[in-house]
Design goal:
Elements (H helix, E strand, L loop, with lengths): L11 E2 L6 E2 L3 E3 L4 H13 L4 E3 L15 E3 L7 E5 L4 E5 L4 H10 L2 E2 L11 H6 L16 E7 L5 E4 L5 H7 L8 E8 L1 E2 L2 E10 H6 L1 H7 L2 E6 L5 E10 L8 H25 L4 H11 L3 E5 L1 H5 L7 E9 L3 H14 L8 E6 L14 E9 L5 H13 L3 E2 L9 H7 L3 H11 L8 H7 L2
Parallel strand pairs: 3-5, 4-5
Antiparallel strand pairs: 1-2, 6-7, 7-11, 8-12, 9-10, 9-11, 13-15, 13-16, 14-15, 14-18, 17-19, 17-20, 18-19
């Protein structure tokens, strides 16, 4: 299967395999004008319109029975402005291609998530993020964006031009229009030194504030049913470059992190009582290592084991308490969880529906292997997250609705008012948007 999620007989499926849709027709426009024509035609035919990226969302945010826009011809760099230090890219450009192209030009994004399969528009529209003390999500690095609105016109926005649209559309959920190009802030390429090392759950939770404060990018994985975590600290470095050796990279990132991990998932599903023992072995499989490389080679890693995920942002001050509650819930239950829990942070930003809008945030992500029954685990986790005013990632499994979001997003009404103005007839509506934004 290619990175673009798809299926047979006109059925579209997402990467996690938990969402499918049968669109009335598919369009692959090669320009913003062709996309605008497709939008106008859909409106004439009374069909809804959704754009899909690579299907890395676990929610049905991109699903439609109307017109499915595939962006693979809307790719590539439009412009690099070295005075303003920005790059403008077509919306369908995969992050991987952007990162490689920028590196060749001696440039880089400041921060990024842990995979780079997604399109730039798909990643930003759902609020995809990495971890950072001062540097925010991918969308927080946007300096301007262009979208086709419901009437088929092309609208550009930036802090100076249509600032109300800019404030919302950077994480627009596909509800305000279809993004055709994005301008990102970039900087001269730099080096990061990564320190990966095991740490006990007790130590990482006790010293969390200190670990966060001392590192530009701190994250960790906790292995349920164990007292073990793997921590990762990324900080800027004067060099020299010391990449992970090729064999070591294959052994640790492919064989252990993907191959052995996949086998552990299969064993865990066949024999659930074995999961705690497997978790103890998994948590000790990766030893400490330090390496120095350019950003995308440090921030991102291959993820070949397919999974389904729920992730919530809670106020950063509530991360440790939330995590301890998650651990005690798992310790009390008979749930058997073979996937680590991922913890990251982001600084407050000014995007209306950003999970970090107006507050320093910590992210806690729970996962289970593709095909595993996840409802009980995710429901129990969600109960804990929402008790801390958690905000779910827009592209990951959750059960929240517009009423809930109106309570946890101070600018929720600002977003829905803008949607009323830009898409009064709900051309870009689908079941997911009806639930999360209201009818």
């Amino acid at each position: 299967m290619s990175s673009t999620a798809s299926g047979k007989n006109g059925t579209w499926r997402n990467w996690g395999g938990n969402v499918s849709a049968r669109p009335a027709r598919e369009v692959t426009p090669a320009s913003a004008e062709e996309l605008a024509q497709a939008v106008r035609r859909a409106a004439e035919d009374g069909l809804k319109v959704k754009a899909v990226g690579t299907g890395h969302s676990f929610t049905s945010i991109a699903a439609t029975d109307g017109v499915l826009i595939r962006p693979q011809l809307l790719t590539g760099i439009r412009n690099i402005d070295r005075d303003a230090m920005t790059v403008t890219v077509e919306a369908g450009t995969p992050l991987k291609r952007l990162n490689l192209a920028l590196a060749r030009e001696g440039l880089s994004l400041t921060n990024m998530g842990d995979i780079m399969e997604q399109t730039v528009a798909g990643a930003t529209s759902t609020g995809t993020h990495g971890t950072g003390r001062e540097s925010g999500s991918t969308a927080a690095q946007i300096r301007a964006l262009e979208l086709v609105t419901a009437d088929g016109s092309v609208l550009t926005s930036s802090p100076e031009e249509n600032p109300d649209v800019f404030a919302a559309a950077r994480i627009g959920l596909g509800a305000l229009g279809i993004v055709t190009a994005i301008t990102f802030a970039v900087e001269p390429v730099f080096l990061l030194t990564a320190r990966e090392e095991p740490m006990t759950f007790d130590r990482v939770t006790r010293d969390f504030d200190e670990l966060w404060a001392e590192n530009e990018h701190f994250e960790f994985y906790w292995f349920p049913h164990t007292g073990s975590t793997n921590t990762k600290r990324n900080n800027r470095s004067a060099g020299p470059e010391r990449p992970v050796g090729r064999f070591k990279a294959w052994f640790e990132d492919e064989f252990l992190s993907n191959g052995v991990f996949q086998a552990a998932q299969w064993i865990g599903r066949a024999a659930p009582p074995a999961v705690p023992a497997i978790a103890r072995i998994s948590s000790k499989a990766l030893s400490a290592r330090t390496y120095t490389d350019i950003p995308y080679k440090v921030f991102t890693s291959p993820r070949r084991v397919r999974f389904v995920e729920m992730e919530y942002a809670v106020p950063r001050a509530a991360v440790v308490e939330t995590l301890r509650e998650l651990k005690s819930m798992l310790d009390r239950s008979n749930l058997r969880v073979s996937f680590p829990v991922e913890v990251r942070t982001a600084p407050a930003d000014d995007i209306a529906l950003s999970t970090a809008a107006g507050r320093d945030s910590g992210y806690i992500a729970v996962h289970l292997a593709k095909g595993a029954p996840y409802q009980r685990y995710f429901t129990a986790a969600e109960r804990i997250f929402t008790a801390h005013e958690g905000r779910p990632h827009w592209g990951k499994v959750h059960t929240r609705d517009a009423e809930y979001f109106a309570g946890v997003y101070p600018r929720f009404g600002e977003f829905t008012a803008l949607r009323d103005r830009l898409d009064p007839d709900r051309l870009f509506q689908n079941d997911y948007l009806r639930r999360v934004l209201g009818a």
